Amino acid sequence: MVYTLPPEVLQIAEDIRSMKIRGAGRIARAAVKALKIAALAYRGSELDDFYEYMKYASKLILATRPTAVSLPNAVAYIMSRLSKNITSLTLDEAKSKVAAWADEFIEYSLRATELIGEIGEGRIKSGDTVLTHCNSSAALSVIITAYKKGKDIKVYACETRPRFQGRITVKTLAKEGIDVTLIPDSAVRFFMKDVDLVVVGADTVAANGAVVNKIGTSMIALAAHEARVRVFVAAETYKFSPATVIGELVTIEERPPTEVVSEEFLKMYPSIRIRNPAFDVTPPEYIDAIITEKGIISPHAAILVLKEEFAWALEDRMKKLRIAVEYETE
Ligand code: RUB
Q: pTM of the entire structure?
């Protein structure tokens, strides 16, 4: 069944796809906002049809970008509640419940970013030089909170090719009054000797503690490891991936070649292949700790966060897995 969704919902989906809305936390908040708008705009009269319509809207939002698990987790925050409560709600109640759950998620997410700052800033000392990559609200919350607490810090920010999110980062930090230097991604090892700690964000944290973040993060973690510089990842608990518990792999988004070279270049050299992966995976061995809104954990404790936060999703996945195994052994 094809439904007509409000233009605002289609626009949010397009803005996520085109990266006008970007960063795992912002994407998650935009996703639930889109579901709220869709729910309130529903004009039908059947509860069952409303549920199908919401599933349709969810699918559209989920198809925008594949890597950040905050997106499916945010959609599941709404849809799992809707599915659990649907039989006890009237249509009007279901619509306003979706709106309320969306507001609740957005409030939680914004507070989580603040809490990560408050919890994580303790890892930065006055006099430290911090290196960050891309543009992560959670990582920036840690750095800015440390500075606001009176710590005298310096920041190196990678420019983050090909989309240059590092430019957003340096503008934000400079506006706060922080001593910040923009460096090419390829200069990370050159500057690592001056760095005391690395703070980055995450799009997805896997059950084994591996972190998926902007392309280049794993290279930074390697250089930090070699120089014995600590690496901290700032990530809300909704960036932990329940699917990875049963061994599902995280899809790494590959973006268009025109983000790397011009259309003219492509036309002029048609035999040259261009690859543009947007994210990479940093193994847990290269991460000292993950700063969440609930506390700081070793990457090896990621599974405990998943057990606590996503018990329902894990149960659901284990059930599916059991069914799959039973089917295979029949
Ligand atoms: C953004 C990116 C960020 C994480 C965390 O990639 O990799 O480090 O999403 O961000 P893109 P936040 O620009 O491709 O979306 O802490 O803001 O959720």
A: 0.95
Q: Which residues are catalytic?
A: 134, 203
Return d(Cα 57, Cα 212) in angstroms, integer: 26
Q: For the segment 109-118, what is each residue's pLDDT rounded down to a tens digit?
A: 999 999 999 9
| Ligand 1 atom having least distance to the Cα of 25 | 18
If asked whether residues 235 and 106 sit together in one domain, one would say: no
**Cα gap 166→64, rounded to integer Å:** 23
* pLDDT per position as a tens digit, 254-307: 999 999 999 999 999 999 999 999 999 999 999 999 999 999 999 999 999 999
Domain boundary among 64, 88, 115: 115
Residue 324 included in any domain: no
The SS3 of residue 132 is strand
List, in sequence order, the alpha helices (H) in the chain: 7-17, 24-41, 47-62, 70-85, 91-120, 137-148, 165-176, 188-191, 217-226, 263-268, 302-309, 311-329
Q: Which of 203, 217, 250, 282 most suits a substitution to test ligand 1, by most atoms within 8 Å of the C-beta?
A: 203
Closest among 238, 217, 261, 255 to 308, alpha carbons compared: 238
CATH at residue 48: 1.20.120.420
Give per-residue pLDDT as tens, 187-205.
999 999 999 999 999 999 9
Q: Quick one: which atom of ligand 1 is closest to the CA of 165?
A: 13
Q: Is residue 67 located within the same domain as residue 132?
A: no
For residues 210 and 78, membership in a common domain is answered with no
Single out the residue of 191, 166, 201 nearest to residue 279, CA to CA: 201
Domain assignment of residue 36, given as a range: 7-115
Q: Is residue 320 part of a domain?
A: no
Domain tally, the chain: 2
Residues 6+ apart with CB under 8 A from 77: 32, 101, 105, 238
Q: Is residue 1 part of a domain?
A: no
